[in-house]
Each structure stands twice: as structure tokens, then as C-alpha cells.
Amino acid sequence: MNRQKQISANILEGIAKTIGDTNRGLTGSEIGYILQMAKLKDVDPVNTKWRRIYNSFVEFQNKNQTSNNILNFVKLSMDPSRYVGNTNLFNELRDELNQKMSFAGFQISESGTLQKIKTALTLSEAEERADRLKSKLQNRNGHQEIFKFCKAELLSNNYFHAVFEATKSVAEIIRQKTGLSEDGSELIEKAFSIKDPKIQINNLATETEKSEHKGFANLIKGVFGMFRNTTAHAPKITWEINEQDALDILSTISLIHRKLE
């Protein structure tokens, strides 16, 4: 990585609090190991986890006037292999880190790589954008679930993050309704199976009804394939979703939520 500029103390603190979260973050021994791997000095090993990480960040940056090793620490902490069997935790931490790191011009991909992005907007600009999107969705009579994703922190970088989070809400509702634990296409196939449906949108008594049921399942699969599947995540760095795109996509997700309800 080329020499990277320093990251503000507020952003460093936010990153440290996520990675060193008492309940979800790294253990004390993991912190020590990754600090060593990232060639960061463990200056305060007896302090709370997040302060231990933060103090190490500050010591390095003050001494070297660059954030390179700090960014490497984040990358090592979010190596997907560390979260095998705990995908939800990985996604939760990654989303939280990306919101904070977007203000420094970085984000972590699903593959765990660190990628440069356009530095996030100010919060006031993001809030203005969120209010505008929310108002337009209200005019479209959007489902109540959709409005959870019209928040400034989700829109501080671009609209993709709000859309991405909204698609995840569909899978979560389906899991809640069915008790299934799968994700993606496997979840949809089990939930909307014609032979043994956990969810059905009609009586499945005629070929027309069966066709409608299958079409609805395929619609959800299409949304997942476009915004959730691993192969679809890579282009999101270069694919700029504008406000009109976001409105159309969120309206489609709103339709899905209404049918599920």
C-alpha cells in the first residue's frame, strides 16, 4: 500500500470501539497477536480493549505520520477466515466499520480487502440526502421496513449501502417467519418450495397461482443476486447508484416486504 495520510482521532476511536467491542470484538489475546502482525506497539496492554487498540493507533500515527499499519490492523482483524461459521457477526462488524471508515475514504469488501472510496459527505449533507429520499419514498407509499434504511449514516457515502442493507432485511424477515437459518437462494428455495412451502403468497391451487408464487420467489432471488451474492459485491465500488436508482430498488424491496407481510 502507498503511504496513506493520517486518520483523525475521532475516526480512530470509532474503529477501535468496534473492533474492541466487549461483546462482539476481538479477545485480548487476539488484539495482542494482530497488533504484533501489523507491527503496532502494544503500548497499553492492561487497559480496556478498545482503549488498548486506540492508544496503539495513536502512538504509531504520531510517530510515523501515516495510517498504513493501522489500516493493515483493520484488514487483519476483518479477515473472513476469522469468522467462519459466524457470517452475521462479520457482516455486522464490517457494516459498522465501513460507516466510520467511509469518512477516511476507505471500506472493507466482503472478501476482507481494504478498498479506497470517495470520502464520505458531511453528516449535514448526508442528513439532507436522507430526508429527501425518505420524503420521496413516502410519496410512493413505501413499506415501513424500508424507512429504516433512509438514515444519514447509511447514505453518508452513497446509496448502495442503504440498498444493500435493505436487501438483507428481506432475508431476515423470511428467516423469522420460517425458522430457517439459510441465506440467499438456498433460503428462498426452501421457504417458497411448491411441494413444502414455509411461505405461500396464494393458495397454490392452480397453475397460475403456482406460477405467481414461483415468480415472486425468483424476484427475491434476483434482488439477492444483484446486491447480496459474493460475485455482486465487487462491482459496488465502481457502480454508483444514484437517487433514482435507489428509489426504484427500494420500491421493489418495499413490494417484497408488503407481499411477505
Explain this structure:
The protein has twelve helices and two strands. Helix content is 59%, strand content 2%. It is mostly helical. It has helices at 9-19, 28-37, 49-64, 68-77, 87-101, 123-139, 152-155, 160-178, 184-191, 207-227, 230-233, 243-260, and strands at residues 106-108, 114-116. The chain has two domains: 9-116; 123-260, no CATH class. It has a two-stranded antiparallel ribbon with strand order 1-2. The longest helix has 21 residues, at 207-227.
Keywords:
single chain, about 260 residues, mainly alpha, 2 domains, two-stranded antiparallel ribbon, about 60% helix
Secondary-structure blueprint of this entry?
Layout: H1 9-19, H2 28-37, H3 49-64, H4 68-77, H5 87-101, E1 106-108, E2 114-116, H6 123-139, H7 152-155, H8 160-178, H9 184-191, H10 207-227, H11 230-233, H12 243-260
Antiparallel strand pairs: 1-2
Helix pairs in contact: 1-3, 1-5, 8-9, 8-10, 8-12, 9-10
